Amino acid sequence: MATSGKQHTRLGEQAWNKMSKVNAEFFALTYGAMVMQLVQDFEDTAAVNAQLDTMGYNIGVRLIDEFLAKSGTGACADLRDTAETIAKVAFKMFLGVVAEVANWNADGTAFSVVLYDNPLIEFVELPPQHCELLYSNVLCGVIRGALEMVQMKVECRFARDVLRGDDLNEIRVELKEVLAEQMDDQYFEGM
Amino acid sequence: MIFNFYIFNRNGKCLFYKEWNRPQNTLQHDDGEEKRLMFGMLYSLQELVGKMGGGDGKGALQSFTTDSYTLNFFETASGLRFVLNTDNRAGDLTAILRHIYGNIFVDLVVKHPMFEPKAGVPLQLPMFEEELEKYMKSLPCFV
């Protein structure tokens, strides 16, 4: 696995070099302003978390094509390959940071993406009344949306969050189902 | 010479169709039927090619040639299928289909706010069409 890990890292580097960049502080502040707006609009923290997840999902279902096209990765062989690709290639390509894959469950159907360095949370502190806010929940949605487009239904949640006092960020990804190809209705005529 | 071009989504809906040269069209009377048949054929062919090749067989089908045309095929992991029909002198067009996907489709369709990745509605995006038209016409094998 060591060699394939290196290959993922290299692909990530290449993809990162190809991407157009925005200023990291500008990005972090813009994201912060958006979360602030959601917090004001929804009041209920759970609703904000859900909204961030939905936004992420809508990003993910689009992002997958840019990812596939520009990273040059094809279909993944198995879930381990998928996990490494998300952590080493996708995170590098879109956020400029590399994540680690850890904590596989015994069945090999769930893993964690561990993020030591989360560019979204620069400058951020959670006030006590919003201690339940999953500030970076958009990332869970992105992973969920992107994987759904390659026929993997997953559940994704923040297991640990630096903003909430943990020592690192951990996104738990659990594979629920591999979706079957679903033909459009027009192919079922006369059957 | 480039004849025509299709984009299908994973469910077999035709998202986009464009033809440049098509002197003879025996399925003219029924547009939808042709697209259905095209996707159905590719789907079956992919299955068969995969089974004959062993392994998971995905990505095995790239093109096939008949007496009168060559069909070039490219499928993405996200289930989009790009189909480009040309005459038999156009050569290998895999790189061209990849370019259409990576540079034209991603930039002008996927990033377009009106595009809904899961809806499967035919694309009506003039910028995409223009850019595709320009790119196709710039290819040496176009005429």
TrEMBL record, chain A:
A Pfam family this chain is assigned to: TRAPP
GO cellular component, one term: endoplasmic reticulum
Main subcellular location of this protein, as a coarse class: endoplasmic reticulum
SUPFAM superfamilies reported in the protein's UniProt record: Ligand-binding domain in the NO signalling and Golgi transport
InterPro entries recorded: Bet3 (IPR016721), NO_sig/Golgi_transp_ligand-bd (IPR024096), TRAPP_component (IPR007194)
Biological process according to GO: Golgi vesicle transport; macroautophagy
PANTHER family from the UniProt entry: TRAFFICKING PROTEIN PARTICLE COMPLEX SUBUNIT 3 (PTHR13048)
Oligomeric and partner information: Homodimer.
Function per UniProt: May play a role in vesicular transport from endoplasmic reticulum to Golgi.
Protein name according to UniProt: Trafficking protein particle complex subunit
Organism: Tribonema minus
Lineage: Eukaryota, Sar, Stramenopiles, Ochrophyta, PX clade
TrEMBL record, chain B:
Superkingdom of the organism of origin: Eukaryota
A Pfam family per the record: Sybindin
One GO term of the biological process aspect: endoplasmic reticulum to Golgi vesicle-mediated transport
Alphabetic keyword roster: Endoplasmic reticulum, ER-Golgi transport, Golgi apparatus, Transport
Localization of this protein: Endoplasmic reticulum; Golgi apparatus, cis-Golgi network
SMART domains: Sybindin (SM01399)
Gene Ontology terms: cellular component: endoplasmic reticulum; Golgi apparatus; TRAPP complex
SUPFAM superfamilies hit by this protein: SNARE-like (SSF64356)
Subunit structure: Part of the multisubunit transport protein particle (TRAPP) complex.
Protein family per UniProt: Belongs to the TRAPP small subunits family. BET5 subfamily.
Protein name in UniProt: Trafficking protein particle complex subunit
Natural source organism: Tribonema minus
